[in-house]
Protein backbone atom coordinates (compact mmCIF):
# COMPACT_ATOMS: atom_id res chain seq x y z
CA UNK A 1 0.00 0.00 0.00
CA UNK A 2 1.54 3.34 -1.01
CA UNK A 3 2.17 5.76 1.85
CA UNK A 4 0.61 8.62 -0.09
CA UNK A 5 -2.88 7.71 -1.25
CA UNK A 6 -2.42 9.91 -4.35
CA UNK A 7 0.29 7.56 -5.63
CA UNK A 8 -2.25 4.85 -6.43
CA UNK A 9 -5.21 5.85 -8.56
CA UNK A 10 -6.69 2.35 -8.84
CA UNK A 11 -10.18 2.12 -7.38
CA UNK A 12 -9.32 -0.81 -5.13
CA UNK A 13 -6.31 1.08 -3.77
CA UNK A 14 -8.39 4.16 -3.01
CA UNK A 15 -10.98 2.01 -1.25
CA UNK A 16 -8.25 0.33 0.77
CA UNK A 17 -6.86 3.72 1.79
CA UNK A 18 -10.37 4.84 2.78
CA UNK A 19 -10.73 1.67 4.84
CA UNK A 20 -7.46 2.32 6.62
CA UNK A 21 -8.42 5.94 7.33
CA UNK A 22 -11.77 4.81 8.70
CA UNK A 23 -10.00 2.33 10.99
CA UNK A 24 -7.82 5.08 12.46
CA UNK A 25 -10.99 7.18 12.96
CA UNK A 26 -12.67 4.22 14.75
CA UNK A 27 -15.45 4.14 12.13
CA UNK A 28 -15.63 0.36 11.97
CA UNK A 29 -18.76 0.10 9.84
CA UNK A 30 -17.01 2.23 7.22
CA UNK A 31 -13.96 -0.03 7.47
CA UNK A 32 -16.12 -3.05 6.69
CA UNK A 33 -17.89 -1.29 3.81
CA UNK A 34 -14.71 0.07 2.20
CA UNK A 35 -12.85 -3.21 2.66
CA UNK A 36 -15.74 -5.16 1.11
CA UNK A 37 -15.82 -2.78 -1.86
CA UNK A 38 -12.06 -3.17 -2.23
CA UNK A 39 -12.28 -6.96 -2.20
CA UNK A 40 -15.22 -6.97 -4.65
CA UNK A 41 -13.24 -4.74 -7.02
CA UNK A 42 -10.17 -6.99 -6.85
CA UNK A 43 -12.27 -10.12 -7.36
CA UNK A 44 -14.04 -8.59 -10.35
CA UNK A 45 -10.82 -7.38 -11.95
CA UNK A 46 -8.48 -10.29 -11.20
CA UNK A 47 -10.26 -13.48 -10.14
CA UNK A 48 -13.36 -13.44 -12.39
CA UNK A 49 -11.44 -13.15 -15.68
CA UNK A 50 -9.11 -16.02 -14.73
CA UNK A 51 -12.02 -18.25 -13.67
CA UNK A 52 -13.92 -17.36 -16.83
CA UNK A 53 -10.97 -18.23 -19.08
CA UNK A 54 -10.45 -21.54 -17.32
CA UNK A 55 -14.17 -22.30 -17.53
CA UNK A 56 -14.26 -21.58 -21.27
CA UNK A 57 -11.16 -23.74 -21.84
CA UNK A 58 -12.64 -26.65 -19.88
CA UNK A 59 -15.92 -26.31 -21.77
CA UNK A 60 -14.04 -26.42 -25.10
CA UNK A 61 -12.20 -29.52 -23.88
CA UNK A 62 -15.53 -31.17 -23.09
CA UNK A 63 -14.97 -31.04 -19.33
CA UNK A 64 -18.36 -29.53 -18.60
CA UNK A 65 -18.42 -30.36 -14.89
CA UNK A 66 -15.09 -28.57 -14.34
CA UNK A 67 -16.28 -25.65 -16.46
CA UNK A 68 -19.45 -25.46 -14.37
CA UNK A 69 -17.45 -25.57 -11.11
CA UNK A 70 -15.51 -22.49 -12.22
CA UNK A 71 -18.72 -20.72 -13.24
CA UNK A 72 -20.26 -21.45 -9.85
CA UNK A 73 -17.10 -20.18 -8.16
CA UNK A 74 -17.45 -16.98 -10.20
CA UNK A 75 -20.97 -16.57 -8.83
CA UNK A 76 -19.78 -17.24 -5.29
CA UNK A 77 -16.90 -14.72 -5.58
CA UNK A 78 -18.95 -11.85 -7.01
CA UNK A 79 -22.66 -12.65 -6.90
CA UNK A 80 -23.55 -9.17 -8.16
CA UNK A 81 -21.74 -9.72 -11.47
CA UNK A 82 -23.62 -11.21 -14.42
CA UNK A 83 -20.48 -12.99 -15.68
CA UNK A 84 -20.82 -16.14 -13.57
CA UNK A 85 -24.52 -16.56 -14.29
CA UNK A 86 -23.93 -16.11 -18.02
CA UNK A 87 -21.07 -18.61 -17.95
CA UNK A 88 -23.06 -21.23 -16.01
CA UNK A 89 -26.08 -20.77 -18.27
CA UNK A 90 -23.94 -21.14 -21.39
CA UNK A 91 -22.50 -24.40 -20.09
CA UNK A 92 -25.97 -25.77 -19.35
CA UNK A 93 -27.13 -24.76 -22.85
CA UNK A 94 -24.11 -26.53 -24.38
CA UNK A 95 -24.97 -29.58 -22.31
CA UNK A 96 -28.54 -29.57 -23.67
CA UNK A 97 -30.12 -28.48 -20.38
CA UNK A 98 -31.92 -25.21 -21.14
CA UNK A 99 -34.12 -25.56 -18.04
CA UNK A 100 -31.06 -25.46 -15.78
CA UNK A 101 -29.67 -22.57 -17.84
CA UNK A 102 -32.91 -20.65 -17.33
CA UNK A 103 -32.65 -21.30 -13.58
CA UNK A 104 -29.13 -19.80 -13.56
CA UNK A 105 -30.24 -16.78 -15.56
CA UNK A 106 -33.27 -16.21 -13.28
CA UNK A 107 -31.02 -16.36 -10.22
CA UNK A 108 -28.76 -13.80 -11.86
CA UNK A 109 -31.68 -11.51 -12.69
CA UNK A 110 -32.69 -11.59 -9.02
CA UNK A 111 -29.16 -10.87 -7.76
CA UNK A 112 -27.40 -8.67 -10.34
CA UNK A 113 -28.23 -4.95 -10.21
CA UNK A 114 -30.16 -3.66 -13.23
CA UNK A 115 -27.39 -1.11 -13.75
CA UNK A 116 -24.84 -3.89 -14.47
CA UNK A 117 -23.55 -3.64 -18.07
CA UNK A 118 -24.48 -7.26 -18.81
CA UNK A 119 -27.94 -7.21 -17.19
CA UNK A 120 -29.71 -6.90 -20.56
CA UNK A 121 -27.72 -9.84 -21.92
CA UNK A 122 -28.78 -11.85 -18.89
CA UNK A 123 -32.43 -11.01 -19.66
CA UNK A 124 -32.01 -12.00 -23.31
CA UNK A 125 -30.29 -15.31 -22.52
CA UNK A 126 -32.98 -16.08 -19.94
CA UNK A 127 -35.62 -15.65 -22.64
CA UNK A 128 -33.73 -17.89 -25.08
CA UNK A 129 -33.26 -20.62 -22.45
CA UNK A 130 -36.90 -20.47 -21.38
CA UNK A 131 -38.03 -20.77 -25.00
CA UNK A 132 -35.73 -23.72 -25.67
CA UNK A 133 -36.78 -25.49 -22.49
CA UNK A 134 -40.43 -25.34 -23.61
CA UNK A 135 -39.78 -26.66 -27.12
CA UNK A 136 -39.14 -30.33 -27.76
CA UNK A 137 -37.86 -32.02 -30.87
CA UNK A 138 -40.30 -34.68 -32.02
CA UNK A 139 -38.25 -37.12 -34.09
CA UNK A 140 -41.19 -39.51 -34.55
CA UNK A 141 -43.33 -36.73 -36.01
CA UNK A 142 -40.62 -35.96 -38.57
CA UNK A 143 -40.52 -39.50 -40.00
CA UNK A 144 -42.38 -40.32 -43.22
CA UNK A 145 -45.61 -42.24 -42.51
CA UNK A 146 -44.50 -45.31 -44.53
CA UNK A 147 -41.30 -45.61 -42.49
CA UNK A 148 -43.15 -45.07 -39.23
CA UNK A 149 -45.67 -47.78 -40.21
CA UNK A 150 -42.83 -50.25 -41.03
CA UNK A 151 -41.13 -49.55 -37.71
CA UNK A 152 -44.32 -50.10 -35.73
CA UNK A 153 -45.32 -53.24 -37.65
CA UNK A 154 -41.88 -54.81 -37.29
CA UNK A 155 -41.33 -53.81 -33.67
CA UNK A 156 -42.09 -56.30 -31.00
CA UNK A 157 -45.16 -55.46 -28.98
CA UNK A 158 -43.22 -55.63 -25.69
CA UNK A 159 -40.64 -53.13 -26.94
CA UNK A 160 -43.24 -50.63 -28.07
CA UNK A 161 -45.29 -50.77 -24.90
CA UNK A 162 -42.43 -50.64 -22.36
CA UNK A 163 -41.84 -47.00 -23.16
Q: Can you offer a commentary on this structure?
A:
This protein is mainly α. The protein is built from 9 helices and no strands. It has helices at 11-24, 28-60, 64-77, 82-94, 98-111, 119-134, 139-142, 145-154, 157-161. It starts with 10 loop residues before the first helix and ends with a helix. The model has no long low-confidence stretch (mean pLDDT 86).
What structural category characterises the helix and strand content? mainly alpha
**Mind summarizing the main beta sheet?**
none
The rounded distance between the terminal residues' Cα atoms is 67 Å
- The Cα radius of gyration reads 25 Å
Beta-strand share of residues: under 5%
Low-pLDDT residue spans? none
What number is the mean pLDDT? 86
Order of helices and strands: HHHHHHHHH
The helical percent reads over 70%
Count helical runs: 9
Number of strands: 0
Write down the overall geometry.
elongated
SSE arrangement:
Blueprint: H1 11-24, H2 28-60, H3 64-77, H4 82-94, H5 98-111, H6 119-134, H7 139-142, H8 145-154, H9 157-161
Helix pairs in contact: 1-2, 2-3, 2-4, 3-4, 4-5, 4-6, 5-6
Briefly say what this structure is.
This protein has 163 residues and is mostly helical.
Notable traits:
163 residues, 9 helices, mainly alpha, 0% strand, elongated
Amino acid sequence: MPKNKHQCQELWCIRLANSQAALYAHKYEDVVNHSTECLDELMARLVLPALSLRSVANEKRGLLSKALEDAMQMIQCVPTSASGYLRAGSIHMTNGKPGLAADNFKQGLETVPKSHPQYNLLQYENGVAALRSRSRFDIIGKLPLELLHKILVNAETETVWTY
